[in-house]
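Q: A reviewer asked whether we had any structural model of the full assembly, not just the individual parts. We don't, so I'm hoping you can provide one. Inputs are below.
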Amino acid sequence: DAGVIQSPRHEVTEMGQEVTLRCKPISGHDYLFWYRQTMMRGLELLIYFNNNVPIDDSGMPEDRFSAKMPNASFSTLKIQPSEPRDSAVYFCASSPEGGYTEAFFGQGTRLTVV
Amino acid sequence: RKEVEQDPGPFNVPEGATVAFNCTYSNSASQSFFWYRQDCRKEPKLLMSVYSSGNEDGRFTAQLNRASQYISLLIRDSKLSDSATYLCVVNVLTGGFKTIFGAGTRLFVKA
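A: Here is a predicted structure for the entire assembly that you could use as a starting point for your response.
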């Protein structure tokens, strides 16, 4: 298995633009997580899905952020409109059994909003 | 108070040293615990799970103290390749669950 695949690896965009981050989880994993990592706040869980259904989105910072999982092999995290404070590394992770097992992380998307 | 707290370090140790990290958590409903390792500009990767009975994997030993609500990681005979950030992870049952990462402890092993 290729692991969790994220795209793009790097994204530079102007403030106010829409940004879409993509993730393909490991096949057979029922849980998918979106994290954001910054120097100031560390690694924060934004939202997670179980069997394509959003379970907890309490970490989503505000309405500008939205996440979808239309099927078991694809998820998106969208920021509209983007702001400079959204600059961070965004990780997607998947796991077979949620909080009781290892989460496998993708390589992340480094987002810079200028 | 943060839900999961770690000493940010950095810890600077010579090769061959033994180093220990602690992590405290505040929610008594915490159910599962892990240590992850993150190299610079890379994704976090699981180092080891932490069990109530303690567990060992080569030079690494993890322990859980539920009464005092902390977990620890001991690294013996440090190698240069152990230099990384070590993240403490706690899962809290909340109907579903909530995964909380500590801010990480940076370790530098010097020759």
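A: Points you may want to mention in the reply: The mean pLDDT of chain A is 94. The longest strand of chain A covers residues 42-50.
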